[in-house]
Every structure is written in structure tokens, then in C-alpha cells.
């Protein structure tokens, strides 16, 4: 009888190996989850290039902090929580990334953590530019939210995490995630409506459409 192929190791098993210094296990985690982190970093920054840099930083920080993160309830929520902290200070994070690269074992760099951007078709450049313009408009409103509301909205909406996963990433109770997310959505809606109204208002000194000088 033909035996079934072995199931691939889960994230917890790979992370346990990575914590012991196994670069191949860490490389597999990168392969599985780098696109999720990359897209999340884009939503936090509105720039694909910055998202590429920050994705590298997130995985390098994960490698650096691996011994301090023993019992993770969820690897991806932890990664996205790390991404949120990195994105809040992106300029310093990128400089730190360059310094860390010089200290990494070559096998970790070969595993992909130094080259984070998924391949993309150059023909998609116009669509990517449109994505950036749209996201920057959203971020102008998003960044007016209190920090705690930004965190839960980003994780639950942009990161597509459950309440429980967001609670793990932020180290807060599930009930707190629910209440903050409800406030964040209501706050975001009010700010978006106010921004739309302001955009629709005529500028001082401008003439209404169709008006003519006499």
C-alpha cells in the first residue's frame, strides 16, 4: 500500500526549529508569510518600495527576537504586531535593517529575509501607482485616529486577523479588541465623511460652476 506523503510542518514546529538557530526553518516561514507581511506593510505606509524594505526589517527583527518569543499563540499575528511597530518608525527601522544585514548568518540571508518583495510584472506599474495614490488618501484619514484604534483597525481589517489573533498581537483582551474596533470604524466613517464634505466645498474666492462675470 502506498503511504501518504507527510504533512508539512506547521508554523509552531518551524518556529521552534528557527528559535534553535535553524535558518532553513526560518526561510520556510518567510516563504509562507512574506506576502502577507508585504501587503500589510503597504497598507500601513502607502508605498510599495517602503513596504519591501519594512518586510525585510520585520523578518530580520523576528530572527533577532526569536529567543524572546518562545510560546507564540500565533506566528502570523505576532509578525503583524511586529510589522505595526516597525512601520511606526520606518526610517530608523530601514537604517537598522542595513546594520543587521551585516551581522546575519549567510544562510538566513539566502533564505530570503534580505529580499522581501514578491515578484511583480512591470506591466502592473500603473496599477501599483494607483494603489499607492488610493492608499495615501486612506492613510491621511487613518492617521488621525488614536494609536490604539489604528492598531486594531489595521490588524482586523487590513491584516484580516480575527479578534483573538489581534488580541494576541497586541497583548490585550479580546473584548478590548472588539470595543476599540467598533470605535475605530465609527471614527473612521466620521472622518471620511468630513473629508469628503471639505473636498466638495468651493475654495474661497472661487466662482460656482456655471457662473459668469458680468
UniProtKB/TrEMBL annotation:
Sample GO molecular function, one term: sigma factor activity
Region (Disordered): 191-214
Gene3D superfamilies: 1.10.1740.10, Winged helix-like DNA-binding domain superfamily/Winged helix DNA-binding domain (1.10.10.10)
Keyword hit for Transcription regulation: yes
Domain of life: Bacteria
The keyword Transcription belongs to this UniProt entry's keyword annotation: yes
SUPFAM superfamilies: Sigma2 domain of RNA polymerase sigma factors, Sigma3 and sigma4 domains of RNA polymerase sigma factors
Residue intervals of the RNA polymerase sigma-70 region domain: 29-96
Gene Ontology biological process terms from the UniProt entry: DNA-templated transcription initiation
Residue span(s) of domain RNA polymerase sigma factor 70 region 4 type: 137-188
Keywords: Sigma factor, Transcription, Transcription regulation
Listed Basic and acidic residues bias regions: 200-214
Signal sequence, renumbered to the chain: none
Family, as annotated: Belongs to the sigma-70 factor family. ECF subfamily.
PANTHER family: RNA POLYMERASE ECF-TYPE SIGMA FACTO, RNA POLYMERASE SIGMA FACTOR RFAY-RELATED
Descriptive protein name: RNA polymerase sigma factor
Protein's organism: Jiangella aurantiaca
Lineage of the species this protein comes from: Bacteria, Bacillati, Actinomycetota, Actinomycetes, Jiangellales
